[in-house]
Amino acid sequence: MTTPIQSLLSTGTKLWLDSVDPDLVLKNRADGATGATSNPIIVTDLLASGRFDDQITRLIKEGLDDDQIAWQMTDFLVRDAQDVFLPVWQQTAGNDGYVSFEVDPLLEDPELNLPHQQRVEQTIALARKWSTGHRNRMMKVPATPAGLDALEEIVAADVTVNVTLIFTLRQYRAARDAVWRGALRRDTLDGFKSVYSIFISRQDAYAEKAVPELSTEAQGMVGILNAKRTWAENRTFWADKGVPLDQEIVFASTGTKRPEDPPWKYVAALAGSDIETNPPATNEAVAASGLTFTRQIDQLPSEAVIAEIDQLVDMDRLEEVLMAEGIAKFAKPQKSLLELVATKRQEMTA
User: Fold this and answer.
1) What is the pLDDT of residues 251-296, one digit of tens each?
2) Structural domain contains residue 11
3) Which residues contact 155 (CB under 8 A, 6 or more apart)?
4) Which terminus of the chain has fewer CB atoms gathered within 10 Å of its CB, N or C?
5) Please, what sign has the CA dihedral across residues 230, 234, 235, 240?
6) Would you say the pTM of this structure is higher than 0.70?
7) 171 lies in which domain range?
8) Rounded distance between C-alpha atoms, residue 287 and residue 271, angstroms
């Protein structure tokens, strides 16, 4: 009997886990997941659990400072997940099986307020540093002004990227074009892979507050419509570029935020192609749903709903607000990670 997860995968969707918890990675790989993503929140939660105190103690004894420990532990957790998904990378010749590693979010910290060019240069340097020697590691680069300006050089240096914090077609186009310019500077397009993480549920949370006049039919569809439009444009763009590997959309922020929505709302709506990176709880809800998922990615909302969203939702304003929130959410967890390491140092050396 086909399970809900199996039916989702049979539509053409690739399932990535939004966690690098070693236990969850193994479980989700067994269930059919073929990749994973990491971020400072995930790493902080794992280190706070106490499961990795022995490694932290060893790094403290080696004389590493808090920042170095935070990054060494992030590297350790991502490496561990990479090992699990490496066979997928090998079987697909580099088309799948990746684990994403985020460049330092503090580069975008509004409190530090680094000069733009310094952010660009450090983003490039860190992407090259943390990708070196890793076949199935993707560097997560945010679609901020500095991140976008860094992409061409990063990709030209043969680094595989996951462009994140994308909310609008404008950001996607800027990211895609920069990535393609970088790819064309490579000696070969063999092994060239890029993905673009579109954040979905945050758009609907924004629309519920900022555009309450949307009808019941249109409310909760802003993120889905935007994701499907971006997916369609992405397929069209790459169709004639002659690249051996798929350049894909990652449907991110797929956990529902409205209690009245079923937890698999976005999973079902975007089934059929590319990559869904789901929180563990969402995957568990999908697995327990008893549903059979079918291809929906190319099924747009009704013309009336599309017209209403296009008329009432100012996507430039949406991007402005969500990027400001996103950058804050981007930097704050890294600070929390550093604070946690500092606290553990005090406890372990007391």
Assistant:
1) 998 988 888 899 999 999 999 999 999 888 999 999 999 999 999 9
2) yes
3) 161, 178, 179, 181, 182, 183, 185, 186, 192, 194
4) N
5) positive
6) yes
7) 4-36+94-329
8) 14
